[in-house]
Each structure stands twice: as structure tokens, then as C-alpha cells.
Specification:
By secondary structure, this protein is of the alpha+beta class. The protein has one domain. Helix content is 60%, strand content 14%. The chain contains four helices and four strands. It has a four-stranded antiparallel β-sheet with strand order 1-2-3-4. A hairpin with a 2-residue loop joins strand 1 and strand 2. It is globular and about 50 Å long. The termini are far apart.
Length: 169
């Protein structure tokens, strides 16, 4: 009687491929836009695009909204470590929930964004931000495609949970 052995590239690994592909696309788009910004803009340079949006080159040594940016440099390695641990956890979660499309989409977005910002910290010691939205003299903190992907992923996670709870009723 022959037994079937499960390959290391079984069904759960195959279902990972599209989500890792999405994360890779996000990572490539993020890094490509940052290469353009660092190639054409000096720190602080800005281009007016619309009455509410500029392209600007900014460096963030901290986390979201420049949290801990004023510290002495230890935060670079702290946030890099958090990003690596988060990426490993997300891959584990993707493997554990292969059939949950919205959840997997959310995880892939967060994964691509997290790795994009980790790459920046490793290469430069800071994250390159360039999207600057403003209104009536108030500026939202500049951000990048990785940050946008993380935000889309977080919103998708909340939506996934709301839908899951609703289905449970």
C-alpha cells in the first residue's frame, strides 16, 4: 500500500504564492518610487502637484508620525527587528489561513509594506517618505507606498474581522 507524502511545497505553500507575489509587487513598487525620489530630490525638496498634494523628500528615522525619530539611533535597529519579526509572523499567518482571501490580502499588503520600510532602514538608516497631503495650511505626515500598503492592509484586517463577526451571528 503506497502512502502519499506531503511535499514541503504542498497545498498551503501553493496558496502562499499569490500572496507573496502581491507582497513582492508592493515591495518593488515601493522601492522603485523611493529610488526615483532619492535620485531626483534632495532632502526637503518639494514639488507642488495640486492644491492639496506635493511630492517631497523626507527622511523618517522613527516609526509612524516620526515616533522616536529624535532618539540617538537605536530605534533604527529596534524598528528593523520589529519589521523582520512581523514579516515572519505574517508568513506564518498566511500559511495558517490559506482560504481566507481578504485576510490574506491584508497580510500581503502589510508584509510588502513592512519589508519595504525594513529595506530602507537597512540601506539608509531611515525611511524615505515623499507623499505630502495638506489642507488649509495643515500637513499630514509625509508617507510612502509601503506606509499606504500597511494602512490598506490594516483597514482590510478590520473589515475582515467585522465580516467574520457578522457571519458568526
Amino acid at each position: 500500500m503506497a502512502t502519499k507524502s506531503k511535499s514541503t511545497f504542498g497545498k498551503s505553500s501553493a496558496s502562499l504564492i499569490p500572496w507573496l507575489g502581491l507582497a513582492l509587487i508592493i515591495l518593488i513598487a515601493d522601492q522603485f518610487t523611493k529610488v526615483l525620489i532619492t535620485g531626483y530630490y534632495h532632502l526637503g525638496d518639494s514639488t507642488y502637484v495640486t492644491s492639496f498634494f506635493n511630492i517631497v523628500r523626507a527622511h523618517n528615522t522613527g516609526a509612524a508620525f516620526s515616533f522616536l525619530a529624535g532618539e540617538t539611533g537605536w530605534q533604527r535597529w529596534f524598528f528593523t527587528g520589529i519589521g523582520v519579526v512581523a514579516a515572519l509572523f505574517i508568513i506564518y499567518m498566511l500559511r495558517s489561513h490559506p482560504g481566507q482571501k481578504l485576510f490574506s490580502f491584508a497580510m500581503a499588503c502589510i508584509l510588502g509594506g513592512a519589508i519595504g520600510n525594513v529595506v530602507d532602514r537597512l540601506l539608509h538608516g531611515y525611511v524615505v517618505d515623499f507623499l505630502d497631503f495638506h489642507w488649509r495650511g495643515m500637513h499630514f505626515a509625509a508617507f510612502n507606498l509601503a506606509d499606504a500598503a500597511i494602512t490598506i492592509g490594516a483597514i482590510s484586517l478590520i473589515l475582515d474581522e467585522l465580516l467574520r463577526v457578522r457571519r458568526g451571528k
